[in-house]
Specification:
Structural class: alpha+beta
Distance between the termini: 32 Å
Oligomer: single chain
Helix content: 40-55%
Number of helices: 5
Largest sheet: 2 strands, parallel
Order of helices and strands: HHEHEHH
Strand content: 5-15%
Shape: flat
Radius of gyration: 15 Å
Length: about 90
């Protein structure tokens, strides 16, 4: 996996752009949402998930143990099991 990753996002020298969430619109979303972070995820990703979890009325959040910023690549079996359980609960 590491050998296949180009590192492009970290090699781009363009200034970072802040995401502008429409928090009011998100707070009115009436869908179950699953947020996924790795236990060792980048602080910026965790902060975005924190904001989304606090805003979305029906958000559920999981943290994949030992994973970093790419839990779906690092531990696809764990992530798939969590997604399957989520879909069974909300389906």
């Amino acid at each position: 996996m590491v050998m296949d990753f180009s590192g492009g996002p970290w090699l781009d020298h363009a200034p970072a752009k802040l995401l502008d969430f429409d928090l009011k619109a998100l707070s009115q979303l009436r869908l179950p949402v699953l947020l996924i972070n790795g236990e060792r995820d980048h602080a910026d990703f965790v902060e975005v998930s924190d904001r989304l979890e606090a805003t979305l009325p029906d958000a559920e959040r999981i943290r994949i143990p030992e994973a970093g910023g790419f839990p779906t690549w690092e531990y696809p079996g764990r992530v798939n099991a969590e997604v399957r359980q989520f879909l069974e609960r909300v389906g």
